[in-house]
Amino acid sequence: MAGRDLRTLFSTNDQSICANEAFTNRQAQWRAVTSCLAEHIRHVNSAGFDVEDLERSRRNVLVFHGVGGIGKSTLSRKIEASLARSEHRPAQWESPSHSEDRTFPVRIDLARTSGADFESVILTIRLAVAALGRPMPAFDLALRRYWQHNHPGEPIEDYLRRGGLFSRFSAAADLPKQMQSALGDVAQALLLPGTVGGALGHGAGALVRALRERRHSVRALAGCTRLADLLEADADLDSLSFYPHLLAWDLAQIPAAKSALPVILLDTFEDTGDRTHRDFERLLQRVVWLMPNVFFVVTGRNRLQWAEASLEGQLDWTGPDAWPGLVPGDAAYGRPDASGHQILIGDFSPEDCEDYLVRRLSRDGQPLLDESVRQIITERSHGLPLYLDLAVMRYLELRRVGRQPQVTDFDHDFPALIARTLSDLTPEERHVLRSVSLLSAFSVPLATQVAGTNHDAPALRLIERPFIRESVSGVWPFHIHDLIRSAIRNADDASDDRWSQQDWQRAAERAFQALESQWREDVRGDRIVLVGCLQQGLLLARDYNLDLGWLTAAAYEYVGDSVWEPLALPGAGDTPSCGPRTTADTLVETLSAIARRQHEHRERTVGRLSAVLASESLPDELIELATYYRAKAQRDLGLTDDARRGMERVASLGGRLSLPAQRGLAHLNRLSGDFPAALDVVASLGWEGRRHRVEGDVWWVQGDMERAEAAYLAGRSEAEDHGAIGEVAMVQAHLAFATSFFDPPRADDELDLAGRLLSPVSLRSNEMTAHIAALIRDAGFAADLPDRAAVLYSEIGVSGISYTAAKLQLALCFHHAVLDARADLTAGITRLRELTQAGFYAYYVEIAHFMAGLPLPEHTTRATWIDGEQRTRQRWRDLVMARRDHIGLAR
């Protein structure tokens, strides 16, 4: 650090320039910990603090994030040791300002290799709290109930001892005594035999009644306002995630003289899931939110996104008002006075780069580097601190020779980076490095093939270099640091073995062929391999103007199973204003529009695919791809005439999507009410046309749920035989929907399976179908059903999948018909008529009348029912009457 400051000092005669030290060791991170911890202690000890306040924003979490291998886990362990005992604190770390307050840390490694699950997280926290030597009655009551329900016959003490958790904590042996003491006190207060833990079957109910009546005998627990509710809730994992509220309340009851502040360090947070699957993260977030008197230090590769409002619905508490300290751009790179609670370790984010450049050189408190210069340096640095330092020195060098540095002076990669990278590599290693710089990720065999060599040794040596990063996720484990990769591909290379433009072109062609081999040799049909090859192949085709070749077949495979991983090319013209630039860009825009329709309004999908078709830049063999999916989006929007024309065009081409287009025409016949015509098409569809699913869709609207169920079961079995996970999930959602009408108990299992199958894929309309199925299952006996439907209506409005609104309204009509709520039913039918006035799904109005045994008004549009109107009417009426019998309502 001192050398870097001296270089700045001796780079200019201008003594007014202030050169601040920017690269610091872990002292800054320690100061951030102590500063935030002191702030937290002041907040907890303030007069207005209420541990049961669930609406106040939270600042009880500090995040250190950065790339793998940068020392986050080491930092986490060092913080734990330093807070536990002062003698373990590094000499350069000053004493914390809150030393007068007792703290006790507990570190929890969330890495997959550690086997941590949510239960073990909760148990670890409780074991750590045992060091205080006091019972935690509210929490222990709930935990004991949960444990007996989920681990019958297995004492919690045996589980902890067998799992090794006891050995981590010196006071862990006292935990059983503390729990037994709390349970015994409650049992004695309620005059129950034994303990509540031993008689939870009736003891919990007695306690709940006592709490709700605020009896004097349980006054010690009556102040915990949510204890009764939690004891009444199902003892499942979801309820367990709310129990930390009870532990926080218990901690707040300890007298100040005997209390201590828990500091929970959650390490390897990235292993809790990804940006799509947040189930574990949601549970952990509840722990943080529900324990406002506890301080959390999170270390992981990524920023916590909790302050982003876009995550609403995925997590329980989101947005800047909930987590003001986690707002992106609010964090410094480790200043002890940082207001932000997210601190980057290692490579800098754009915000961190800007902060560094603002502070590195200044005059009179103002940044010396212009904003435009800072911006280009940030963009070119890829977050590498070394690049920022080289850029600052270049800035001073330009000023020294009498030039005012301009933006263009920094629009390049420093050749010094290449020289440093290549200096100690063998010629073979340099050849492999240049070759794999064409790829965003690679393996040793792929690197060897791309380099055109016949042995792996150079690639094996290369992956040991410090600028090669390794990741356990993805198809290929290795990638070059982004800045080094950019420098090798773009900077002026003055080395003796530099490549010509023809060398780069030949290497791109080798890489393109190597990716084709990787894809074709994947006998398992792994979608991760497909998407990885497609992503990198498209980039090469764009940058080196290659023919699409194998990418066409890969694109059709990508859309074939309806599993919509995102596809995008760095720097590609993805905005409507610039439009696609190459054939590869056009294909990426097509695939992106198809995949994004699960997350965008269908009008956006139609617009994007229409623009692609209007550009006439798609090859002939791919035109049907854009046409077919545009027609599907048009159908979802209710543009049936446009959808029919598109489907007919694709069907007439006789290409890869001919059978799916015929299925689309069958769906259009079905939504117009011509069921015999839809059924006539079924026999010709086969597996590729998803025959059984189409058949099930026809039969359920006839009220013949048994035939629909049989069709869906056959379709699910066929999809499983073909390994089509997207189709399996899709059919299962439809099966759960049909089952919910006539067998609510079994529908529970079908919906649970549908949820698990839909979880790893992105099928928005089928997720809606499953949600509607849950309402149908509960029709007649769920008082909150209309409220749940209202929430679902808002989600449908965002997606633009208009037909699901009518389907949801039909489910409400079923609910009203079961209850014989005539006023609600009349209003529901009116709403249903409004939703179907364009003509599609108009027969839902008929079905609603059939359910309630009502005659059809004059001028009602009538469908062509397969078995005739009377038999269809009777089947729907029988479903309503069967539901009444099921819930014990009079006929």
Notes on the protein architecture:
By secondary structure, this protein is mainly α. The protein has five domains: 27-345, no CATH class; 347-411; 413-508, Arc Repressor Mutant, subunit A, CATH 1.10.10; 522-656, Serine Threonine Protein Phosphatase 5, Tetratricopeptide repeat, CATH 1.25.40; 658-887, Tetratricopeptide repeat domain (Serine Threonine Protein Phosphatase 5, Tetratricopeptide repeat). The protein has 40 helices and ten strands. The strands form three sheets. It has a five-stranded parallel sheet with strand order 3-4-5-2-6, with helices on both faces. A three-stranded antiparallel sheet has the order 1-7-8. It has a two-stranded antiparallel ribbon with strand order 9-10. Helix 22 (501-520) packs antiparallel against helix 23 and helix 28 (640-653) runs antiparallel to helix 29. The protein is flat.
Could you give the count of β-strands? 10
Could you say which overall geometry the principal axes of the C-alpha atoms support? flat
**Strands ordered across the widest β-sheet:** 3-4-5-2-6
Oligomeric state, counting identical vs distinct chains? single chain
What's the end-to-end separation, in Å? 84 Å
Output the radius of gyration: 32 Å
Domain tally = 5
Largest sheet: 5 strands, parallel
